[in-house]
Amino acid sequence: MFKSFFKSIQEHITENIDTITCSEFRDLYVDFVKAHNEYGGGTKDLTGFSEFLVSNYLGAYFRGKGEIQILHDKPLVGRKLQHPDFQIWNNEELVGLVSVKANTAGSIKMYGQDKERLENVKQGNTPSITICFYKGNAGLKSIQKIEQTMINHKFIILEQEGTKSLKEAIDQVFR
């Protein structure tokens, strides 16, 4: 039963890889959280599900673009051992890092830790993105400060990007 549920989401993402908007992608997450809460759940953020969606999107996005591997939560050694949400490898070369946040309501400390984690393992000018599903006013100033200081990094706030295609938003970093 659950396999068919997850498979249908995976198929939907794959079939709509070029056209799904940031809002539509965010709605997949929002609708799941609402249904989860209707049926007895008790949370507004389900990190595992947001990462599932991003993992499936990245898999479809990079399909056919070389020998790409997307690794989830694998330890990566920089100045110290880190666990980025996703690492994107082409053969033996790290070509991208992705961080997933349910919302932007985090503090400067939280985003500072995320920045440190990504920069610690970046190799040269490795591109990176942070995908946020919800926009929370508290974290926007933190995001703006951090985005200005990070090299080759973009925050994609799905709620804010609206009707822009997710592919277009990601293309800005991973060409």
Question: What is the molecular shape?
Answer: globular
Here the CATH topology equals Trna Endonuclease, Chain: A, domain 1
N-end to C-end Cα span: 37 Å
Strand content: 15-25%
Return residue spans where pLDDT drops below 50 for at least 5 consecutive residues: none
Report the average pLDDT across residues. 84
User: Strand tally, please?
Assistant: 7
Output the strand order for the largest sheet: 1-4-5-6-7
Structure in words:
The structure is a single chain. The strands form 2 sheets. A 5-stranded mixed sheet has the order 1-4-5-6-7, with helices on both faces. The chain is globular, with a radius of gyration of 16 Å. It has 7 helices and 7 strands. With 175 residues, it is an alpha/beta fold. The chain has helices at 2-15, 22-38, 47-62, 108-121, 137-149, 158-161, 166-171; strands at 68-72, 76-77, 81-82, 86-90, 93-103, 128-134, 153-157. Helix 4 packs parallel to helix 5 (137-149). It has one domain: Trna Endonuclease, Chain: A, domain 1, CATH 3.40.1350.10.
